[in-house]
């Protein structure tokens, strides 16, 4: 049985605004010694003080955007939106020198690089993981990346294979139920060959995309990774209950 990773207390080394609604926080310090190498797109759990009770901590899961082993630096991208939450509130307010405790990393969730073509779908919460997937792909990869952002100015200049077609979908109200990503998936001209599909983001959106791909496009479970990172109108705990209630587990 593998040993459970011990929590690490890290310092805020830098913060940078990637786009109007995304902020990159660089964490580091001596306790990153021994953090596994090659962890871009893995996940870590960050501990934040509960805003209603500072003696209580809550955990939130975030993607490792970049890990620089020699420098002992780890980048985490936070979506900043109108809804208050412990992670986004911390990312807005933190200062260089502040500390935070993390646990992990958890396993990376990557596409199947042996597939004939690729489809990646997600909102801004999934953008760091999708970006890491695109960077890891072989240069000959082809397919689509469908990315929902809050504002046109949130589009990023991503490193990707030439034949991956990125489609940006602007949704200024991500906290309202919508089918923007699903409708874009439906509009695609479906390539021939074996796909590798990667979907993540809001709960109901991910669920509807998965259902369409299975029933209408015949995508099998082994050809698709599907997860949800958050749920409209639900806390982290409420979202967890919703995921547990799905008869066929996401992912």
Write the topology of this structure.
Blueprint: E1 8-19, E2 22-28, E3 43-50, E4 53-63, E5 66-68, E6 73-79, H1 86-93, E7 99-106, E8 117-122, H2 127-136, E9 142-149, E10 163-170, H3 180-187, E11 195-200, H4 203-216, E12 224-226, H5 236-245
Helix pairs in contact: 3-4
Task: Characterise this structure.
Helix content is 20%, strand content 35%. By secondary structure, the protein is of the alpha/beta class.
Low-confidence stretches: none
Please, how many helices?
5
How many beta-strand segments? 12
The helix-strand sequence is EEEEEEHEEHEEHEHEH
Shape: globular
Helix proportion: 10-25%
Radius of gyration of CA atoms, rounded to a whole number: 18 Å
Distance between the termini: 23 Å
In short:
The protein is α/β, with parallel strands linked by helices and 251 residues long.
Jot down its keywords.
single chain; 251 residues; alpha/beta; 7-stranded antiparallel beta sheet; 5 helices; 20% helix; 35% strand; globular
